[in-house]
TrEMBL record:
Keyword vocabulary terms for this entry: Transcription, Transcription regulation
PROSITE patterns membership: HTH_ARAC_FAMILY_2
Xref: Pfam families: AraC_N, HTH_18
Protein name, UniProt field: Transcriptional regulator, AraC family
Domain HTH araC/xylS-type span(s) in chain numbering: 196-294
Record-linked InterPro entries: Homeodomain-like_sf, HTH_AraC, Tscrpt_reg_HTH_AraC_N
Entry superkingdom: Bacteria
SUPFAM superfamilies in UniProt: Homeodomain-like
Gene3D superfamilies: Homeodomain-like
Amino acid sequence: MRQADELAALIGRLVTSDGVHETAIPRLALIRACQPTEPVHAVHEPALCIIVQGRKQVMLGERIYLYDRTRYLVVSVDLPVVGQVIEASAEVPYLCLRLDIDPVQLGALMLESKTDSNKQSEGGHTDAGPCLAVNPAAPELLDAVLRLVRLLETPRDISVLAPLAEREILYRLMNGEQAARLRQIATAESKLQQVNRAIGWIRRNYDKAFSIEALASEASMSPSALHQHFKAVTAMSPLQYQKQLRLQEARRLILGAALDAASAGFRVGYESPSQFSREYRRLFGAPPLRDVARLRSARAVDMLGA
């Protein structure tokens, strides 16, 4: 794992404080944590995440994904997940990078490399499936990632060389174990893209009630097909997905905008304060005020997306 060692040394030089650090390279962020973190609820957007030191777990629905320097994480649609750094110390901090996946670049690369967009897997299977996965980190992928991160030490080269390194990273991913899922991101009428249209609608209208029939129409699918594929992709139903978004936004409003629980619940679409408090407690493990007080005292660092 020579590449991981070099990446760890490089990221250690570039970021010396905990948190998520955006970089001069578009879509690339570097992350550091010197201790394990609290579980963080948030929406993970499409991205490649590579840990070079430490360990993390991400929970989607009831399933837990563990990854470290030997395995990378790929997310191919917006997913409400719970992320937690579980191995980190001041002496050996958690170090990670996140590269957001640009679907436009992915589509252009797929066309240029003459990838058969209809061949979603070796068996030609086109159904949407889980859109969060952990896979072994191949040396070829790490080589390309290392070249990209090295450019942060020679900023004058970023504009010319960063797009080349990013293209190679996407190419390696497209020819790896997540090839079928990534190709579906760039294929307009794939089941994944249809589900993604439904996801986008819910994210824009998370505070509004909706019917599964109206959402299915938005996705150009039948209600039964939408429900089936939505759950396969996100590990939850459309209504469960909306509930996660509502509660995460309410938590952000209480924590960051100093709203009281009733006002935050109403802002995100709840009409009943008791229902809001009950569902908030079920998701976060404590009533709103106690949960927010715990977060403030712990000073939890948002390590999601890495």
